[in-house]
Amino acid sequence: MSNQQANKAGASRSTNRVVGWCLAGVVGMFAFGFAMVPLYDVFCEITGINGKTGGRYESTEVAEADMSRTVKVQFLASNGPGMTWKFRPVVRSVEVHPGEPTTVNFYAENPTAEPMVGQAVPSLAPSEGTLYFHKTECFCFNQQPLEAGESTEMPLIFIVDKDLPAHITKLTLSYTLYDQGKQPAVTQTSRKDTTTNDNG
Amino acid sequence: MRVHAQRAGALLGGLMFPAWSMADWTLNMTPGVTGTSNEIFSLHMTILWICVVIGVVVFGVMFWSIFAHRKSQGAKPANFHENTLVEILWTIIPFVILVVMAIPATATLVDMYDTSESEVDIKITGYQWKWQYEYINEDFGYFSNLATPRDQIENRQAKGENYLLEVDNHLVIPVGKKIRFLVTANDVIHSWWVPDFGVKKDAIPGFINETWTRVDKPGIYRGQCTELCGKDHGFMPVVVEAVPEEEYNTWVAEKKEAAERERQLTQKDWTMAELMERGEKAYQTACAACHQADGSGAPPAFPALKGSPIATQDMAAHIDIVVNGKSGTAMQAFGNQLSEVDLAAVITYERNAWGNNTGEMVTPKEIFDYKNQQ
Amino acid sequence: MAVTGVFMSAVADTHAQDHHHGPAKGISRWLLTTNHKDIGTMYLIFSFAMFLLGGSMAMVIRAELFQPGLQIVQPEFFNQMTTMHGLIMVFGAVMPAFVGLANWMLPLMIGAPDMALPRMNNWSFWLLPCAFLILVSTLFMEGGGPNFGWTFYAPLSTTYGPPSTTFFIFAVHIMGISSIMGAINVIATILNLRAPGMTLMKMPLFVWTWLITAFLLIAVMPVLAGVVTMMLMDINFGTSFFDASGGGDPVLFQHVFWFFGHPEVYIMILPAFGAVSHIIPAFSRKPLFGYASMVYAVGAIALLSFVVWAHHMFTVGIPIVGQLFFMYATMLIAVPTGVKVFNWVATMFRGSLTFEAPMLFAVAFVILFTIGGFSGLMLAIAPADFQYHDTYFVVAHFHYVLVPGAIFGIFASAYFWLPKWTGHMYDETLAKTHFWLSFVGMNLAFFPMHFLGLAGMPRRIPDYALQFADFNMVSSVGAFMFGATQLLFLFIVVKCIRGGKEAAAKPWDGAEGLEWTVPSPAPYHTFSTPPEVK
């Protein structure tokens, strides 16, 4: 081969290498875009940033309640768009001691002429408090089917962690109830079933 | 020339002393009526002045060059093209200036994130295209809709002083107390903003956001939705009335009584004429934005009601679509937004206005029964 | 076909070892060309057409906002205009213009015969008219075109979007593929085809800025592809990435979008930084001050651009630690950007300055982009941003960095390199007129928007309260003036292509670089033998 041809061959080999690396980068970044979805969920679970209070809490130790202070926990209930159920907390708020399990109920009624399935999605404010709010039992873990005209009281059992920072004195837990159609879904909604918030 | 001098003076004055700026040519943010808004205003002015000074210096050097180093004036080009010391200096000095800016900025942000005890809690829900305010501890709530008549928007009537910034029901809060807002949305992302309070928070469907304010001065304060939320994003203002505490308590008591009276109204016997009068008002507030005042709508997204099968034929279907909405379309479920009285009135109105003339009416009692026994 | 005729007659095929007989004739030349000059020309023509189209939409917007009240269009259509104006300007005007400049100038600047992958280069271009045909056709579909802003937040764009949204997503995918292929081509060309002796730190600034821009494109365009795919799945396949009812989160959309979106705005300005770094030294007759710092500054800006995205989301409900981090990181970007501005001023200082059209646009770039940078710094201050976010203050900021930033950078480049492309000097008097009318129009249009935002006017509204009326009227007048003036630019370019004073190989006596060693107009094939670089 002439010098020029050899140079061209060399250039095209290294061009192929560069193109290869660039394509790998493209594929990698596309995958990263999708990886951001579970990464975001993990990040939010670890930091509690987006107010999603996570799955069922299983504590590894029996905690004693901190009787020296109380925290007010407020409850809000909203319907998603087009959801026609009556949905409200039975009590507007409770004063709890951190570490003490508390049970409250939410009233839901299906006033329509058809069976329906609802799914409640929780959100907590301030988001700083999310890591310290543990639900041992929540109607939001499952879909709620109700027959036509049927009503029910759904339980929430929660514990406010003793390590809740002192400057947080009021937590607001809001549920939004969504219409999931007529039949309960075969699979659960995409949520991890359990979390153990080991915030020692 | 005098006008120009006046304007230039107002420009400079407006930037330096906000109260001097002429009403329509307002140049600057205002300090507002809360601690937060005043802190933000000070921060804003500080940063602005730092930028002005830097700009004057940098542009000054450049303008000097443009003036003194022109080839046409005989300037010969120098040969320098690097100087490490100078590069280091003009990296470090701006960095230091930024640190100086960051300190008050951090302090203000910490103040804004204060989660200490609040005295009044209000849940704010953004809807397409109105706000819902619910007083959490008082068990009542209401919707707040744009009150500017469509005639003004469509240039058939002169525009009022608070054009596009007026609503039927103000959010009323007491002065001097910490108010906590829980902000969410029903459909898409909205954002609740009152400039005079220095409060803005996105309203995200399915999630709850928290913010707060403490207003020092009684008055009426106006803001707008600040997240694109669909066609009437520009038509869902926020109006907050801050009143002295006793007035607030009186107002709360009145609202609770009014809610009770509305529940009783459901039971009374209504005449067609009463329903039509009430219905027209409710229609203008809740329906005309999409279906138009004359019922002609804007098909295909917003069907016409004038002469439509829905408003002239099967009554049950008409009630169903108003109460339950139609999923997959923009037609919301008004069953949770309007009282039984308004629902009955608006359906009666739609069935008889614009030549629909069915002669049919539906009573609030019938709507109440419908909602409970569907 | 006066344009093709002129290019054909301007070809000088002087290289004995090439077996080409000049470019093909007729439409196949343009459809099948693998020549970087042809492809660069097509990109530039396409981008200008899109600029006029996006500009017309801006005219509709400003006409409606001329006075309070709804006079000309309904809110639903207004939202389509604001959305399409943004999409077309970002993806159809600014980005393709810079790719066009890259195609024309990169091989010339590094002494290469063409881009590394000439056939892929052709595909990269032709994908664009296809994508934009699809995008613009959505305006005529049932339910109208995209109406959710160029940032297309969910769930407005997913659950509540018009039926055409799927086509919008398709068009975005195609544009993304085009950009990615173009970026790969640029990287391969710059890394592999430089003339011997041209080390990285001897490369001209335009080459450096495009190299870094290309890496940004490779990093973030796939993320955009990911987010619109997630949208597609939410809309059509029942997933719930961004839907709370299914366990998703609308804010996730914003994080992924802005992870793309912030580097994207640097993609739209870095090439202009590079071009201005050629033009100012040329018309100051003095070397660029601080070459190495300029290179490091661009690198720093590019790196920082990846960690600031949430400054677009300060009001979303991020906890304080997050807000502080993004505030500090965003403020930091001012440091390398400031270094660049100081270096440009230092280049001019004690130079021997003349103010032909390229220099006028370049100087205006430095001043007005810096003003945009100041409003950007103000926006970075998170607590203050609560008052600025989603108001016209933001609109003022990004139009200052994009119009006198990117667009003036493109005009400056066009005037600077038109003699090289066409062989003729453009009409200097008309060009100066274009500059001054653009300068005045642009400032009249966008400076009042700072005041409107501070006074409380939100973005993306078709109608406004009465206290905003006066500045809106001024802004609209400025916009109409700016818009009309661009037709003058069209006239100047066409006139220059068709004739004018003959241009020397180096028409600007202060210019440096390999591109000025080839004749004007540049022959169809250049640097078939690589030059020696000392």
From TrEMBL, chain A:
<keyword id="KW-0735">Signal-anchor</keyword>
<dbReference type="InterPro" id="IPR023471">
    <property type="entry name" value="CtaG/Cox11_dom_sf"/>
</dbReference>
<dbReference type="Pfam" id="PF04442">
    <property type="entry name" value="CtaG_Cox11"/>
</dbReference>
<keyword id="KW-0472">Membrane</keyword>
<keyword id="KW-1133">Transmembrane helix</keyword>
<keyword id="KW-0812">Transmembrane</keyword>
<dbReference type="GO" id="GO:0005507">
    <property type="term" value="F:copper ion binding"/>
</dbReference>
<keyword id="KW-0186">Copper</keyword>
<protein>
    <recommendedName>
        <fullName>Cytochrome c oxidase assembly protein CtaG</fullName>
    </recommendedName>
</protein>
<dbReference type="GO" id="GO:0005886">
    <property type="term" value="C:plasma membrane"/>
</dbReference>
<dbReference type="InterPro" id="IPR007533">
    <property type="entry name" value="Cyt_c_oxidase_assmbl_CtaG"/>
</dbReference>
<comment type="function">
    <text>Exerts its effect at some terminal stage of cytochrome c oxidase synthesis, probably by being involved in the insertion of the copper B into subunit I.</text>
</comment>
<feature type="transmembrane region" description="Helical">
    <location>
        <begin position="18"/>
        <end position="40"/>
    </location>
</feature>
<comment type="similarity">
    <text>Belongs to the COX11/CtaG family.</text>
</comment>
From TrEMBL, chain B:
<dbReference type="InterPro" id="IPR014222">
    <property type="entry name" value="Cyt_c_oxidase_su2"/>
</dbReference>
<keyword id="KW-1278">Translocase</keyword>
<feature type="transmembrane region" description="Helical">
    <location>
        <begin position="88"/>
        <end position="110"/>
    </location>
</feature>
<keyword id="KW-0679">Respiratory chain</keyword>
<feature type="domain" description="Cytochrome oxidase subunit II transmembrane region profile">
    <location>
        <begin position="22"/>
        <end position="116"/>
    </location>
</feature>
<dbReference type="InterPro" id="IPR009056">
    <property type="entry name" value="Cyt_c-like_dom"/>
</dbReference>
<dbReference type="Pfam" id="PF00116">
    <property type="entry name" value="COX2"/>
</dbReference>
<keyword id="KW-0813">Transport</keyword>
<keyword id="KW-0479">Metal-binding</keyword>
<dbReference type="GO" id="GO:0042773">
    <property type="term" value="P:ATP synthesis coupled electron transport"/>
</dbReference>
<keyword id="KW-0472">Membrane</keyword>
<protein>
    <recommendedName>
        <fullName>Cytochrome c oxidase subunit 2</fullName>
        <ecNumber>7.1.1.9</ecNumber>
    </recommendedName>
</protein>
<dbReference type="InterPro" id="IPR002429">
    <property type="entry name" value="CcO_II-like_C"/>
</dbReference>
<dbReference type="GO" id="GO:0005886">
    <property type="term" value="C:plasma membrane"/>
</dbReference>
<comment type="function">
    <text>Subunits I and II form the functional core of the enzyme complex. Electrons originating in cytochrome c are transferred via heme a and Cu(A) to the binuclear center formed by heme a3 and Cu(B).</text>
</comment>
UniProtKB/TrEMBL annotation, chain C:
<dbReference type="GO" id="GO:0020037">
    <property type="term" value="F:heme binding"/>
</dbReference>
<keyword id="KW-0186">Copper</keyword>
<feature type="transmembrane region" description="Helical">
    <location>
        <begin position="42"/>
        <end position="63"/>
    </location>
</feature>
<dbReference type="GO" id="GO:0045277">
    <property type="term" value="C:respiratory chain complex IV"/>
</dbReference>
<dbReference type="Pfam" id="PF00115">
    <property type="entry name" value="COX1"/>
</dbReference>
<feature type="transmembrane region" description="Helical">
    <location>
        <begin position="123"/>
        <end position="141"/>
    </location>
</feature>
<keyword id="KW-0812">Transmembrane</keyword>
<keyword id="KW-0472">Membrane</keyword>
<feature type="transmembrane region" description="Helical">
    <location>
        <begin position="252"/>
        <end position="276"/>
    </location>
</feature>
<keyword id="KW-0349">Heme</keyword>
<comment type="function">
    <text>Cytochrome c oxidase is the component of the respiratory chain that catalyzes the reduction of oxygen to water. Subunits 1-3 form the functional core of the enzyme complex. CO I is the catalytic subunit of the enzyme. Electrons originating in cytochrome c are transferred via the copper A center of subunit 2 and heme A of subunit 1 to the bimetallic center formed by heme A3 and copper B.</text>
</comment>
<feature type="transmembrane region" description="Helical">
    <location>
        <begin position="430"/>
        <end position="453"/>
    </location>
</feature>
<feature type="domain" description="Cytochrome oxidase subunit I profile">
    <location>
        <begin position="30"/>
        <end position="534"/>
    </location>
</feature>
<keyword id="KW-0560">Oxidoreductase</keyword>
<keyword id="KW-1003">Cell membrane</keyword>
